[in-house]
Amino acid sequence: MIEVKNINKYFSGNQILHDVSIDFKKGKINLIIGASGSGKSVLTKCIVGLHEVDNGSIEYDGRDFTKMNFKERKNIRKEIGMLFQGAALFDSLTVEENVKFPLKMYTTKSQEEILTRVNFCLQRVNLENVNSLYPAELSGGMQKRVGIARAIALNPKYLFCDEPNSGLDPQTGIVIDNLIQEITEEYNITTIVVTHDMNSVMETGDNISFIYEGKKWWEGNKHEILKTHNQELCDFVYASRIMKKFKAL
Amino acid sequence: MISIFHHIGKYFLLLGKVFKKPDNFKLIRKQIIHEMVSLGIGSLGLIAIISLFMGAVVTLQTASNLNNPLLPAYLIGYATRESFILEMAPTVMSLILAGKIGSNIASEIGAMRVTEQIDALEIMGVNSASYLIFPKITAALLFIPIIVIYSMFLGALGGFIVALYSSGMTIEDYITGLRYDFKPFSIVYAMIKTVFFAFVITSIPSYHGYYTRGGALEIGISSTKSVVYTSIVILIINYIITQLLLL
User: Fold this and answer.
1) Can you tell me the distance from the alpha carbon of A85 to that of A197, in angstroms, rounded to the nearest whole number?
2) Residue A222 pLDDT more than 90?
3) pLDDT of residue A164
4) pLDDT digit string, tens, across residues B226-245
5) Which of A65, A208, B73, B167 could hold A58 in an S-S bridge, CB 3.0 to 4.6 Å?
6) What is the ipTM of this complex?
7) Is-above-0.95 flag for pTM?
8) Do A50 and B119 touch (CB under 8 A)?
9) Across the interface, do A88 and B119 touch by the CB < 8 Å criterion?
10) pLDDT tens profile A22-51
11) Which residue has better confidence, A83 or A222?
12) What is the three-state SS of chain A?
């Protein structure tokens, strides 16, 4: 479980996050949704430590991340897997080397054991015979799956996904959503997904936090989101014509 | 002015991160070898062409300016050797490498920054500055002095080819000039300069790449800035070291 308590973040005097508090539950997909520029990516980067919060705390199973030194943070980071918006695979490394990277960096496993783990992770995301390919030779969906394979290589306790299906067709997007859901349940990890894709919200939203102008505006699940009367959330959810028609029904 | 101090401070803070104890020595060693191949061996062809032609041109120009019966012909070889050892090989080749290697490093690290690959390293708990920049600096410190010595030999060879086919001098005169009044300290001086230049050629572009923000346009700007600043710093260091060591 990750508990975010009253965090604030400023950039050059502008307050981006206003007193945000959210509990991200273990074994569930926790969604952070909101319009572009609402502060959801900044919030995620604060949680993983890529940005420092100005005040408030972030607790990973009771361990306050904001009060940790570099070494302690490093240990927590070994428990974090992250899938980036553009997959962020290392261009100069093959698929196999990308997935191997965290294993080689942090484990004392033999080459054979590492290769077995790499192949297991790639099979888990339904990828085979791609070990020797470079990221540029893969489709967007395949890159995302390699990103997931790399993120789960070290058996993380916490999985972060930044807009996992952006740039993907709806069908591939659903494949990625389902994969994240399966992995979350299978390994009982705390997963945080940042998205503004309503398909993902309706597919995987166990615990949804809506961020609006840097504040946590609403919290609920995929069933509650359809019944909400919160004006800003309704504007976000029913932005498309098809959703407006759906609401009218 | 404040901005210059801001960048200098940020540059030294980055160097502090670069020289922290690496997470995994085995991986770093592999990276150093990889960088030596890509940055060093990849530059040998360009350096060979430039050194040969510059050696030839310096020899021709010296020959045309020393066309006086009172001046011994071996001075042509002597002038070629001195200009190559003292300036052409260490300084001019470093300026060329600042363009070739520097833009390569800035754009590579800059692209990694904008595509979140550096964030991915940080999330994994890897000291990204050390992992990406330390091998490049180490590889350059090991390989650029070799490139400079290689350039010295090829510059002399360029002059030799001119002497071979030119009617204005003989090969014997040229070789006598190459060997005349040789001071080994000139090589030491050139190597001291080269070590400083090698550090600058890799660290300044790494700094510009590492702090790139934005997209493709900003990567280009970082790459250009890195070449400009590296060249200026090389010239300033060249002046300071020459003042300290030769006078």
Assistant:
1) 13
2) no
3) 87
4) 999 999 999 999 999 999 99
5) A65
6) 0.85
7) no
8) yes
9) yes
10) 999 998 899 999 888 888 889 999 999 889
11) A83
12) CEEEEEEEEEECCEEEEEEEEEEECCCCEEEEECCCCCCHHHHHHHHHCCCCCCEEEEEECCEEHHHCCHHHHHHHHCCEEEECCCCCCCCCCCHHHHHHHHHHHHCCCCHHHHHHHHHHHHHHCCCCCCCCCCHHHCCHHHHHHHHHHHHHCCCCCEEEEECCCCCCCHHHHHHHHHHHHHHHHHHCCEEEEEECCHHHHHHHCCEEEEEECCEEEEEECHHHHHHCCCHHHHHHHCCCHHHHHHHHC
Q: What is the dihedral sign for C-alpha B46, B49, B51, B54?
A: negative
What is the amino acid identity at position B80? Answer: T
Chain B residues lying within 8 Å of A109, measured CB to CB? none
Q: How confident is the model at residue B9 (pLDDT cuts 50, 70, 90)?
A: very high
How long is chain A?
249
Contact with chain B for residue A74, Cβ under 8 A: yes
Q: How far does B118 lie from chain A, in Å, by closest CA?
A: 8
When CB atoms are compared, the residue of B24, B116, B125 closest to A77 is B125
Q: With an 8 Å Cβ cutoff, is A91 touching chain B?
A: yes
Closest to A90 (Cβ–Cβ): which among B26, B117, B122? B117
Q: Are B237 and B223 in contact (CB under 8 A)?
A: no
pLDDT at B19 over 90: yes
